[in-house]
Amino acid sequence: MNNEKSARTLAWDDYRFILAVGRAGSLNGAAKRLAVSHPTVFRRINAIERTLGARLFERARDGYAPTPTGEDVIAVAAEIEARITATERRLAGLDARPTGKIRLTTVEPLLYSLLPPILARFRRAHPGIVLEVVADNALHDLGRREADLALRPGGQPPDGLIGRKIARIKASVYRPRSLRLPRGAGPEDLHDQDWLVPDGNLANILIAQWLRRQNYDRRAVLSANSLLALRDAAVAGMGLVLLPCYLGDPERRLVRVGEPLEALNTDLWLLNHPDLRRTERIRVFADALREGFAALQPRLDGASGAAPAP
């Protein structure tokens, strides 16, 4: 059977399911990508294979692996997807009206504490624009239009994206108000204390790297993939925590230990795809984010100060 001829009999929606399973390697992962149920993916893949008269995936206990035929069809699906998304980006870039939907991806702490007032002001100024925000620690693919803009702390933007630094974030060590430390103890003198450390998809952020260099991770009594969870655990008295100043300073049940650590200064980047740079709704929203975070810079620097030590 000619694989290319068989592949051409598929609709784009069939390709979407095949591509999702191929990328995720499992039905559950594909279901999450497609926002459908596990049984829906299962039935759809089986139906596609019956239509083609060919097996696209080998079923195993640890997931779905593409057969040689499946690899051919996945490659075709990826090429079609790339052409469709490129066309969508070009069409979106021609839109000069500040209306429509904007998808923004960012990390959870920024959405929790800093972004809502900026988003509210923007909506009042531009009621024709609907905002869709995804707050997690995954880097969504702007090239495939999983998001229009990304707001991320870190280093240089990936190739193919336009990036601009819009703020600087500082971080400090915090202790629960109830925890007493030796007089004069600074951030680098706390090896005998219990620590709360980032883990999972936060294991490689600058904060986690610094904790490992200090060997503080060896005294971890709690690890989590959420800075908000670590902050709340510190408030509950579980141990010391290293946080961005904008998260630690406002919490009056925490006390800053020493000054912000210069080695942990992090740039906040606003990223978007070049094809969208002339889209009016993207432009006005990017301007609003830059202006909003410029006004927040003292708080990001820790200039507002933490709760005074008792």
From TrEMBL:
<comment type="similarity">
    <text>Belongs to the LysR transcriptional regulatory family.</text>
</comment>
<dbReference type="InterPro" id="IPR036388">
    <property type="entry name" value="WH-like_DNA-bd_sf"/>
</dbReference>
<dbReference type="Pfam" id="PF00126">
    <property type="entry name" value="HTH_1"/>
</dbReference>
<dbReference type="Pfam" id="PF03466">
    <property type="entry name" value="LysR_substrate"/>
</dbReference>
<keyword id="KW-0805">Transcription regulation</keyword>
<keyword id="KW-0238">DNA-binding</keyword>
<dbReference type="InterPro" id="IPR036390">
    <property type="entry name" value="WH_DNA-bd_sf"/>
</dbReference>
<keyword id="KW-0804">Transcription</keyword>
<dbReference type="InterPro" id="IPR005119">
    <property type="entry name" value="LysR_subst-bd"/>
</dbReference>
<feature type="domain" description="HTH lysR-type">
    <location>
        <begin position="19"/>
        <end position="67"/>
    </location>
</feature>
<dbReference type="InterPro" id="IPR058163">
    <property type="entry name" value="LysR-type_TF_proteobact-type"/>
</dbReference>
<dbReference type="InterPro" id="IPR000847">
    <property type="entry name" value="LysR_HTH_N"/>
</dbReference>
<protein>
    <submittedName>
        <fullName>LysR family transcriptional regulator</fullName>
    </submittedName>
</protein>
